[in-house]
Amino acid sequence: RLLIVDFGSQVTQLIARRLRELNVYCEIHPFQNVTPDFLRDFAPRAVILSGGPASVPDADSPRPPAEVFDLDVPVLGICYGQQVMMQMLGGLVIRGEGTAEFGRAFVTPSQPLDLLQGWFDGPESTGREQVWMSHGDHVSRLADGFEVYATSSGAPFAVVADTDRHFYGMQFHPEVHHSPKGAKLYENFVRLAGFTGDWTMAGYREQAITAIREQVGTDKVICALSGGVDSSVAAVLLHEAIGDQLTCVFVDHGLLRQGEGEEVAKMFRDNYNLPLIHANEEELFLGQLDGVSDPETKRKIIGKLFIDVFQKHADAIEGVKFLAQGTLYPDVIESVSFSGGPSVTIKSHHNVGGLPEKMGLKLVEPLRELFKDEVRALGRELGLPPSFIGRHPFPGPGLAIRCPGEITREKLTILRRADAVYIDQIRKHGLYDDIWQAFVAILPVRTVGVMGDGRTYDFACALRAVTSVDGMTADYYPFTHDFLGETATRIINEVPGINRVTYDITSKPPGTIEWE
Ligand code: XMP
Question: Is 253 a residue of the active site?
């Protein structure tokens, strides 16, 4: 396996991503954790030193342990990683004054190098390659054994290498989208490190099952099932590893979509024979939400009740020592990297993050190393139905945040029906998989309409459908007018209580995906 030492670059995850695409197994660890002992246990076949916001000339700037260079394995330093390697091996890095380079730059080769093979050639090659630079400091004197293999206008040492020891350094970021052929460099690096690209989901499944058994032993594990992809895949994987030592608790807050609670419970019971407590707590949740219209208050109430209910059921099972969570790789990285500056809370996303401290349980997180699409691939590997795996994301607080203003049972019933018609339309037109997320929000206004010969005074609703890659930014989905017209007609005809349908064409930013 390959070790990525993280110095806090915003794009370190993308390095992992590129390597996974090459079927190479890698792990990112923050530099603070990479001690000589850690290195010995990890026994990497190759090491990548990431970029980062620090400045090598500063006395207290972060360093990897010197032992990294004694492992007799290839080392690749990216940006800050290159500079720190150069400094530690006897070169010199100076603070950039007038030599900073940010954004697009072009790199030209100065002599052949195994790492650069196939990079500058090819039919469309112009003899130089576009890359993405983001550096203030730069290397000004190479360490012994290193030579320059490519340059850019602002970085005379764009690519350097000590070919005897297989140490490589690049001043740019080959992992980002704006270094279009950058993946080739990672491919060359892992090939020369001896990786054969045999890391697959089937392999991961086996490996994860062994690791879960080792960690858990004969103890009992409890898992909160939400009906979402992550917790479902985690539960099925755990069940395969430890069978009935696992109990899942499905906290049904009564804010799920039409038929969803029963569907989820049935799927796990019928297909997986998984020990499942279906905690139907609609009364409790809706009772506490009565009269509440502030979005953040809704989230806080739901989050707290969720923990209370889960804990009540967990306490009733004797000898539980572990809590399983479907934590994904991006969540892990976000919590270790130091991107600097406090960020503003736009919405306090409700999740089960507060559970472990409160309950004194140890954590099992079998998806910690996976990206979202890898979780889906693992789900397929485990035999979860494709329609289940491809489901749009659904927020923890459920329909509560699709019902701006006060939540009432009447509004929830109308919302469920309208949402079901809308999703049915999207599926019938074959659009479901092109859309990241689609739903209906019921608006807290009644408007006047006319149906038959009578006046109506019913709720208005808004349809939402967005495209996105990660939910961080989004654009509205460009339905045809025919589709929208047909859907509006169906909703008004089939859903009593709605007499007006609108389509939300706000992107994110400035809007958010959900209405609250
Ligand atoms: P926003 O509305 O913030 O949504 O643009 C981005 C993504 O996050 C989901 N979302 C939530 N998920 N708890 C969750 O678990 C929440 O409180 C929450 N709020 C929004 C939203 O559905 C979208 O996928």
Answer: no
Q: Is the CB of 351 under 6 A from ligand 1?
A: yes
H or E stretch covering 448? strand 437-451
Cis preceding-peptide flag for 44 (omega within 30 of 0): no
| Spatial separation of the C-alpha atoms in residues 252 and 249, rounded to whole Å | 9
Distance between start and end Cα atoms, the chain: 43
State the sign of the Cα–Cα–Cα–Cα dihedral 238, 241, 246, 250. positive
Query: Ligand 1 centroid vs 441 CA: distance in angstroms?
Result: 14
Ligand 1 atom showing the smallest separation from residue 514 Cα: 2
Q: Give the CATH class of 408-503.
A: alpha beta
Q: Strands (DSSP E) along 253-358, which ranges? A: 276-280, 320-324
Right CATH for 2-192 from 3.50.30.20, 3.40.50.880, 1.10.1740.110, 3.40.50.620? 3.40.50.880
Identity of the residue numbered 217: G
Label residue 12 by pLDDT band (50, 70, 90). confident
Probe ligand 1: pick from 464, 514, 516, max atoms within 8 Å of CB? 514
* CB 511 less than 6 A from any atom of ligand 1: no
| Each residue's pLDDT tens digit, 333-373 | 554 443 333 344 555 554 444 565 667 889 999 998 788 88
**Helix/strand/coil percent split, the chain, to 5:** 35, 25, 40
Sign of the C-alpha dihedral, residues 239, 243, 244, 245? negative
Confirm or reject CATH 3.40.50.620 for domain 201-389, answering yes or no.
Answer: yes
* Gap from CA of 394 to ligand 1 centroid (Å): 7
Q: Express each pLDDT in 139-174 by its tens digit.
A: 889 999 999 999 988 788 999 999 999 999 999 888
Task: Indicate if ligand 1 lies below 6 Å from the C-beta of 471.
Answer: yes
Which atom of ligand 1 lies nearest, measured to the CA of 394?
22
Whether ipTM tops 0.90, in short, is yes
Residue in 26, 79, 248, 461 annotated catalytic: 79
Residue nearest to ligand 1 atom 17, measured at CA: 349
State the distance from the centre of ligand 1 to the C-alpha of 397, rounded, in angstroms. Answer: 9
Q: State if residue 397 touches ligand 1 by the CB under 6 angstroms criterion.
A: yes
| Selection from 27, 414, 365 nearest residue 221 by Cα | 365
Gap from CA of 472 to ligand 1 centroid (Å): 9
Q: Is 425 helix (H, G, I), strand (E, B) or coil?
A: helix
